[in-house]
């Protein structure tokens, strides 16, 4: 059975990421990616015309995830519970599949990202997600805390340098730090006031 086009594309991305990690982005060629995949260079070109196209596909996948999180957050009440759930969902995307390796690659290849249109869009999307996170508190401090709470999650992949730390421990620490920041954001919106009771004393007055 022939492998689906989508499956081939994902396999190319996985192998490319392996090689980028092993020997660096600049030192990896499309020919090497094709050889490790055991396909012709022409077959690789069918899916990606360049290494930049492969990197752009990683960024585009990430943008889709961020957009979905932002849309969810904007549909929820601006409460601390929503903020915690949003950061937890953000962590879920960061600690699943190949995303840890992708994020390490992003961090180590900032110059490559800045040269790509998709890479330039990443910052704007992250700021929009941070805005959704601090809805209900538009102070400058809230904007910074919201951004830092997200950074605590993805920054845990390169900022935590403790040896032998597990992914679960890394995630737990990141969420603890994020929660400290979230707790300092503006209070939950007050519930609507109950309707005023009828003025019983005024009943029957002429």
Automatic annotation (TrEMBL):
Residues 6-66 form the HTH tetR-type domain. Keywords: DNA-binding. SUPFAM superfamilies: Homeodomain-like. It comes from the Bacteria. One of its GO terms (molecular function) is DNA-binding transcription factor activity. InterPro entries: DNA-bd_HTH_TetR-type_CS, Homeodomain-like_sf, HTH-type_TetR-like_transc_reg, HTH_TetR. Residues 188-198 have a biased composition (Pro residues). Residues 184-206 are annotated as: Disordered. PROSITE patterns: HTH_TETR_1, HTH_TETR_2. Residues 29-48 bind DNA. PANTHER family: HTH-TYPE TRANSCRIPTIONAL REGULATOR PKSA, HTH-TYPE TRANSCRIPTIONAL REGULATOR RUTR. This is TetR family transcriptional regulator.
